[in-house]
Amino acid sequence: MVGALIHAGASPERIERELKKLNVSGYHLDWKKAMKEGISAMKFDVILTNEHSHKNTSHSATHEHSHSHADGHSHEHDSHEHNHIHAHDHDHHHHAHKGHTHHPHSHYADIIKLIDDSELDHGVKERSKQIFAPIAKSEAKIHDMAIEDVHFHEVGAVDSIVDIVATAIGLEELEIEKVVTSHVPLGSGHIHIDHGVYPVPAPATLDMLKNVPIAPSNLPFELTTPTGAGIVVSQTDSFGTMPAMKVTSIGYGAGTKNIPGRPNVLRVMVGELLQGNEYSTGHAETVTVLECQLDDMTGEAFGYVMDKLLDEGALDVYYTPVYMKKNRPGTLVTVLAPNDREARLSDVLFQETTTLGVRKNTWSRSILDREIVTVDTPYGPIKMKQALKKGKLLRQVPEYEDVKKAAQLFDTTFQEVYQTALRAGSN
């Protein structure tokens, strides 16, 4: 990934300079052009100085891709961002699960402290922690331990820590605001990890990629590692085809392995979304739907649960009256959850309701582009939520809290402020 970002315009010297703000030593960086089946790409390695010729085999160093997005083959990442990145990971091969010794920063809590205590920019810190979080969560689940106690085997090594933070630095330098990723290839075969021989994908990789579209691949390699999966699930806003965008730069990141007839590269495309033209539309995404039926809770308890779910990141929560066994009146609880919040919101349902089970499903949905604008009114500034399609305003709604405060402040009616804001927004 880092090689592709450098090839697309990120400065390797700046990445190297920023990494010095991280209290990690015993490595040096190497970047150079490499040819992969006729494709010129950038090879990026983190070379450990305290181990003999140990090269980085993390996410960026081993992506194997074989063709462009238009070819219709399997890709792992297509990322688009404002600068957008359109990245294709066709095949990712990672083969360094064995041989890492324990490092001072191998535990999740240590890594987070390392990042927080550094002088890295705030955006870099946040992206870095975002990448580590799903990896730690999956490892904790698989090994049945507290997340703070998770010991990383692959990503706790110095080279992988540096590679993840370097990825965050590159994304921040390119000012990436949105990522769209193509379907993720997993590969096939078996891998050797600290716990023995496992089928591809690794347990943590598979857990992280729940609810993520997977691309089939017959290549007998591990194409997505836990590090790669952590980058994908933490940085991707949606999975699918390339959106309408103006491409401003393209980068190819070279992997280590050579595959006959398959350029082992990760391709990213950086650009700007096209807005306000015939190609601009609302976008599609998937969400996780959580449901349970209850017949033994009070209305006040339901009110608390709804607030709690929304505070924890639910996109929407609604209740539907139902009749249950023996014709008992009950309530169907439906929660629309971002895919990366499914586990936490499920926990809330188990902790705060009387349910014994939660049903889960994945829905596809198309959503309009949304903006928040502020209009001036005789009652002060009022924020307006706008819905747009192809850059055209379809409708707008005054923000409830702004209208409420203005009505109370000016001792007038809610509807007076509301309608005044609508008229101001139409001018």
UniProtKB/TrEMBL annotation:
Checking Gene3D superfamilies in the record gives:
Transcriptional regulatory protein pf0864 domain like
Return the annotated region ranges for Disordered. Answer: 53-106
Recite the UniProt keywords alphabetically.
Lyase, Nickel
**What's an example of a GO molecular-function annotation for this chain?**
nickel cation binding
- Bias class Basic and acidic residues marks the residues at 61-90
Please give the Pfam families that the UniProt record associates with this protein.
Answer: Ni_insertion
Instruction: Give the EC number(s) under which this enzyme is classified.
Output: 4.99.1.12
Reactions catalysed, semicolon-separated, are:
Ni(II)-pyridinium-3,5-bisthiocarboxylate mononucleotide = pyridinium-3,5-bisthiocarboxylate mononucleotide + Ni(2+)
Organism, scientific name: Lederbergia lenta (Bacillus lentus)
InterPro entries named among the record's database cross-references? Ni_insertion (IPR002822)
Job description of the protein: Involved in the biosynthesis of a nickel-pincer cofactor ((SCS)Ni(II) pincer complex). Binds Ni(2+), and functions in nickel delivery to pyridinium-3,5-bisthiocarboxylic acid mononucleotide (P2TMN), to form the mature cofactor. Is thus probably required for the activation of nickel-pincer cofactor-dependent enzymes.
The protein's gene is named larC
Per its UniProt record, what PANTHER family does this chain match? NICKEL INSERTION PROTEIN-RELATED, PYRIDINIUM-3,5-BISTHIOCARBOXYLIC ACID MONONUCLEOTIDE NICKEL INSERTION PROTEIN
Q: Give the Basic residues compositional bias ranges.
A: 91-106
* Listed GO biological process terms: protein maturation
What is the protein name for this chain?
Pyridinium-3,5-bisthiocarboxylic acid mononucleotide nickel insertion protein
Similarity-based family: Belongs to the LarC family.
